[in-house]
Fold this sequence. Notes:
The chain is an alpha+beta fold. It has one helix at 40-51; strands at 4-11, 14-23, 29-34, 64-65, 68-69. The longest helix is centred in the middle third of the chain and has 12 residues, at 40-51. The two termini are 13 Å apart. The mean pLDDT is 83.
Amino acid sequence: SPSRRSAIKLSGDGITDMKIFVKTLKGSHFEIEVKPEDTVADVKKNIETVQGSDVYPAAQQMLIHQGKVL
């Protein structure tokens, strides 16, 4: 199942963005940058943008973290 790990980058103002490491069911790995206020829908759209709508359309994605569907 896909897993995500986040690495937080801090600045003087606090959290500015996060890198999420994505593992797909097909076994590929990539990372995306997200903001703390991003919703699950925002993250799915980001994945679609990075990987291509023909490869991972947002509407067909299921994000799983620690065994729970987000």
